Amino acid sequence: MNDNKHRLATDATPDDHQTADEKDGFSLSTEEKHDVEEKQPPRAAVLHETIRLQGEEELGRSIPALGWSALAAGLSMGFSMLARGLLHRHLGDAPGAFLIESLGYPLGFLVVILARQQLFTENTMTAVLPLMTHPDLAKLASLLRLWSVVFVGNIIGTALFAYGILHMPVFDHATHEALVGIGAEVMANSPGQMFSKGILAGWLIATMVWLVPAAEQARITVIVLTTYLIALGGFTHIIVGSVEVLYLVFSGGAGFGDYVFHFGLPTLLGNIVGGSCIFALISHAQVRGDEA
């Protein structure tokens, strides 16, 4: 009898001794389970909290700090126009020229984001999440203060870049014509198109802001692909577009009123709607829904 019991025990299959967790997949060591956990993408709540904390930090910065950083960002964004214009000047009408010249568009974004300079359209996402998480008048006032300082600093930077590039004896006539052509292309849109395309640009920038913390080593790829799509679609971005249109204005190809009312206001509103009212709101609602 005892021999039969021993035989039954030794004949038991490995599955009879497996835990419920092991039956769900491969049996892993503690170290391997830790490796699996590290390779999991962060939850939406983790991304939300990461960006919210960045927003809290930005809301607490002083006006001079914000202003100088925003000025630097406006100047840096000028390189998106310049890179695209130089590529257009040298590619001419070559097959696929537009696809290649549009690769110059992400340059300004790479400089601004990697250098952590203040870009207005990034803050339509980053600085809004603290207000959505804890809505009160103090947070709203801090957000409006941040937006005002950063927007003014960005626009001054774009104007200085456009004016400087136009008047410095650096580029030939063909390059000048290429840069003027970029501004004229933007102004060919109606105000309604400026607004609609601005929504898509704002949405894409907010998407980029959401993805970058999770991208780690792929940050540059995320930035390039997202902003390259803005260039391909001809979507309107208030900061890059300001460099392009102000270059046209300073060249005598458009009036300052055209810049403000035909391009500026519709594009600004579109970027805010796309970045804050759509993407940021939906992302925040998603996290709140997971907590419910």
UniProtKB/TrEMBL annotation:
<keyword id="KW-1133">Transmembrane helix</keyword>
<keyword id="KW-0472">Membrane</keyword>
<feature type="transmembrane region" description="Helical">
    <location>
        <begin position="65"/>
        <end position="83"/>
    </location>
</feature>
<dbReference type="InterPro" id="IPR023271">
    <property type="entry name" value="Aquaporin-like"/>
</dbReference>
<feature type="transmembrane region" description="Helical">
    <location>
        <begin position="260"/>
        <end position="282"/>
    </location>
</feature>
<feature type="transmembrane region" description="Helical">
    <location>
        <begin position="194"/>
        <end position="213"/>
    </location>
</feature>
<dbReference type="InterPro" id="IPR000292">
    <property type="entry name" value="For/NO2_transpt"/>
</dbReference>
<feature type="transmembrane region" description="Helical">
    <location>
        <begin position="146"/>
        <end position="166"/>
    </location>
</feature>
<keyword id="KW-0812">Transmembrane</keyword>
<protein>
    <submittedName>
        <fullName>Formate/nitrite transporter family protein</fullName>
    </submittedName>
</protein>
<dbReference type="Pfam" id="PF01226">
    <property type="entry name" value="Form_Nir_trans"/>
</dbReference>
<feature type="region of interest" description="Disordered">
    <location>
        <begin position="1"/>
        <end position="41"/>
    </location>
</feature>
<feature type="transmembrane region" description="Helical">
    <location>
        <begin position="220"/>
        <end position="240"/>
    </location>
</feature>
<feature type="transmembrane region" description="Helical">
    <location>
        <begin position="95"/>
        <end position="115"/>
    </location>
</feature>
